[in-house]
Amino acid sequence: MTPSRPIDPPADAAGSEPAGEADPLRSLAQVRDQYRQLLLRLEANEREFRRLGRSVWRVQEDERRRLARELHDGIGQNLTALKHRLAQLGDALPPAQRERLEAAIALCADTLEDTRELSRLLRPPILDDLGLEPALRWLARSQSEAAGMQVALEIGELPALDGDLQTLVFRVAQEAINNVAKHAGAQQVLVRLVARGGLLQLQVADDGRGYDPQRASYSDGSGLAGMRERLRLYDGRLEIHSAPGEGTRLRAVLPLPAVAEGA
């Protein structure tokens, strides 16, 4: 019996590195390249997510604007005309029926005021017609009257802001003041808006009962999550400083367009 000859290694394997003994530096470079590619894809997805989020939010604001005008110019004007026509009937009616007519006129007036208030809450015309600062002054004045608390407003010198940024700042201020009116039991509220160091900073501080921000972050009833998400779409952030019995200071920070990342 002829003894078996040892099997020669494959010709193409001659001179290559044995399996499991690859160059560690080359492997590390490959991992680093894969990580860089993955990071680039994540950043691209994040930019696309923000772009889509801004588009959705813009559509929502357009719809709010349309409904507000429909309420004000359509239903509001019809109610105004109805109120005047009812009032014209008063002189021709006997006293007993005139009292019922006046009750109907009062109901019409209340409905008209509710319609106008709903229109303003959906999208105040002053924001589109006159801009952010007059809209914030209207917001502070109307909330002072409605909620029985003193809302002071301080606005520094601001650069030109586009419509989206003005709407975003107004909505954050509106939500923050509504939260104070509903939950804080505050007497004094200070709203301050300044542009400093390439950042737009909105602060809403109150002297109310305060709360634990950590617990509130898990609640979806205060609107904080909505504010935080809206700000994030524009590379902004939301900071909350509060404690039970010590009031609350909400701070929204946004990069100004000149230094913001590319949209």
From TrEMBL:
PROSITE patterns: HIS_KIN (PS50109). Keywords: 4Fe-4S, ATP-binding, Cytoplasm, Iron, Iron-sulfur, Kinase, Metal-binding, Nucleotide-binding, Phosphoprotein, Transferase, Two-component regulatory system. Its main location: cytoplasm. Member of the two-component regulatory system NreB/NreC involved in the control of dissimilatory nitrate/nitrite reduction in response to oxygen. NreB functions as a direct oxygen sensor histidine kinase which is autophosphorylated, in the absence of oxygen, probably at the conserved histidine residue, and transfers its phosphate group probably to a conserved aspartate residue of NreC. NreB/NreC activates the expression of the nitrate (narGHJI) and nitrite (nir) reductase operons, as well as the putative nitrate transporter gene narT. It is found in: Cytoplasm. Residues 1-27 are annotated as: Disordered. It catalyses: ATP + protein L-histidine = ADP + protein N-phospho-L-histidine. Its EC number is 2.7.13.3. This is Oxygen sensor histidine kinase NreB. GO terms for molecular function: kinase activity. The lineage of its organism: Bacteria, Pseudomonadati, Pseudomonadota, Gammaproteobacteria, Lysobacterales. The keyword Cell wall biogenesis/degradation does not apply. The keyword Transferase applies. It comes from Lysobacter firmicutimachus.
